[in-house]
Write a structure and sequence with these properties.
This protein folds into three domains: 118 residues, Potassium Channel Kv1.1, Chain A (2-Layer Sandwich), CATH 3.30.710; 130 residues, Serine Threonine Protein Phosphatase 5, Tetratricopeptide repeat, CATH 1.25.40; 149 residues, PHR domain (Jelly Rolls, Sandwich), CATH 2.60.120.820. Helix content is 34%, strand content 24%. It contains 18 helices and 18 strands. The strands form five sheets. The protein has a six-stranded antiparallel beta sheet, with no helix packed on it. A four-stranded antiparallel beta sheet has the order 7-18-10-13, with no helix packed on it. Strands 1-2-3 form a three-stranded antiparallel beta sheet, with no helix packed on it. Helix 11 packs antiparallel against helix 12.
Length: 523
Amino acid sequence: ILMVDEKGKNMKCLTFFLMLPETVKNRSKKSSKKGNSSSSSSSKLPPVCYEIITLKTKKKKKMAADIFPRKKPANTNTTAVQQYHQQNLNNNNTIPAPNWQGLYPTIRERNAVMFNNDLMADVHFVVGPPGGTQRLPGHKYVLAVGSSVFHAMFYGELAEDKDEIRIPDVEPAAFLAMLKYIYCDEIDLAADTVLATLYAAKKYIVPHLARACVNFLETSLSAKNACVLLSQSCLFEEPDLTQRCWEVIDAQAELALKSEGFCDIDFQTLESILRRETLNAKEIVIFEAALNWAEVECQRQELTATIENKRKVLGKALYLIRIPTMALDDFANGAAQSGILTLNETNDIFLWYTAAKKPELQFVSKPRKGLVPQRCHRFQSCAYRSNQWRYRGRCDSIQFAVDKRVFIAGFGLYGSSCGSAEYSAKIELKRQGVILGQNLSKYFSDGSSNTFPVWFEYPVQIEPDTFYTASVILDGNELSYFGQEGMTEVQCGKVTVQFQCSSDSTNGTGVQGGQIPELIFYA
């Protein structure tokens, strides 16, 4: 029998010799004449024997993936494969075809079929808290290969032979995400389950999945979730993620403190935030955020949200709020009338503002340092001419990109070249046409060639290696200075900024010259 491959080339040749019974008798007679001891065994030769002759080839041996490269299979196979994948998700796996292995050319794909599959499962997990459990199948060998914890659980010295294992502290969706990584070598993360998946990966010591979860969190980090992620990163002992969270909280402190996630943090994280020296926020905003947290904490402790209970749950953390550093108006109209302070505390703080001999306070009276803004100046010189630079409601714009995450706080703009003047400025920051931040304000220039800062309401987070568009529309009667000898790349501290022309610019600003001489940012 000649075996050929799918291309018609010889693979192996099987030659069969059929021994008739008469031939067997003749061979046994000849062997008996020899009179040796092997006659008895020779007479029992099998009627059929075969020989395998392998054809010689100079080609190297190929793996299954090389012989059957990944390509779109026929419609019937595609339907079957998709059906199995859907069954894996639904935990309702029954393999109808006896040769299902033939649908998958590699061991990785065949192993992936076993994900969330009852076929050959030798252990089951009941995952989730009471009332929200899900029963998931597993295969001890696959799990032990993917996790040292599972190896110790099933094959260690203290292994227990249980058919069902309860895991109440892990969410089913997170456990499934971990199993998918172990079985399929695929990482499937979602924003609403990534923290739970990180917990599962840490618990069962699956470090590569844990690293992927941290990277996902760092990428999706913003002022809205920074406080919650700070709390979780400390719990999971992820110092890099913790540092990233602090960078966002420091630069966008007011947004972070006003977010819903701030009220979900634990008391220890609250103390660390209130103690933070570099918070870039007004103290009245910090005070109001602490009161909002106290109200939610009362609900968690099943307490009525009265003034007394709010102060009770805040405890000593109240004195970490630097109330004496507030503006007097903020204190008089806010903290003093909140009811959270005692009458003596309110009187002493008023005396702190007004009296020459200041009383001793339990509150910290030293202002926070905040963050020092950095300035990236893109021109080497500036000038003015008798017919430039005029503004008629047209846009000056430039594009820029950075190599590290920064937070744009505002722009530095030129002023009048003909003496003192006031300008109205509408500043805007966009990414791919989407407005990320804008503000309308006025600034006064003194006639010098200095730049004058114009700020956004809140600093805008800028991701690395992506071009953003900075724009300004100035309104003023006087001519102004303009920049010359522009640079396409500027090194500002540890941050490298690249500039390129913007199609939004309709008033002459470009890389070589024009307006928007400075980017003001936190890094």
